[in-house]
Design brief:
single chain, alpha/beta, 4 helices, globular
Length: 144
């Protein structure tokens, strides 16, 4: 499925809509360049789960957990992962295979750990279409 958003508010709203449909156990891989809107999407997702605390990119902590909503949200930023074994140290399996939803920025860094039923969300900018424009593609692994 392909979505087009024209501003951060629409990108956030798409994340919120996806969260409202979440049942728990989903792993979502977020892909896109720096500044493309991965964190904005995640903030909308958190809002859709009823999480009220501020959501920021976990660039230096690798994992931020939010438990104040309808489902727990595990927000990973694995950009700085140098050795895949670091994911074991974080306890990623408890998040990926638990009751909550895991959103993983830069998931290609840990591709072999991504579950078979991962949902892939790719966010791309196109300056020709406008500063706020985003093309957001949502696919399951078997659709890739």
């Amino acid at each position: 499925m392909i979505y087009e958003t024209m501003n951060p508010e629409e990108t956030r709203a798409l994340g919120k809509k996806m969260a409202e449909e979440a049942r728990g156990g989903e792993v979502i891989a977020l892909d896109g360049d720096l500044g493309c809107g991965k964190t904005v999407f995640t903030q909308g997702f958190a809002d859709g789960l009823g999480i009220t605390e501020p959501v920021t990119s976990p660039t230096f902590t690798i994992l931020q957990s939010y438990t104040g909503g309808r489902l727990p949200l595990y927000h990973f930023d694995v950009y700085r992962i140098e050795d895949i074994d670091e994911m074991d140290e974080i306890g990623y399996e408890d998040c990926f295979y638990g009751e909550g939803v895991s959103l993983v920025e830069w998931a290609s860094q840990i591709g072999e750990l991504m579950p078979e039923d991962t949902i892939y969300v790719t966010i791309r900018k196109d300056p020709v279409r406008g500063f706020g424009y985003r093309k957001i593609t949502v696919l399951r692994k078997d659709e890739k």
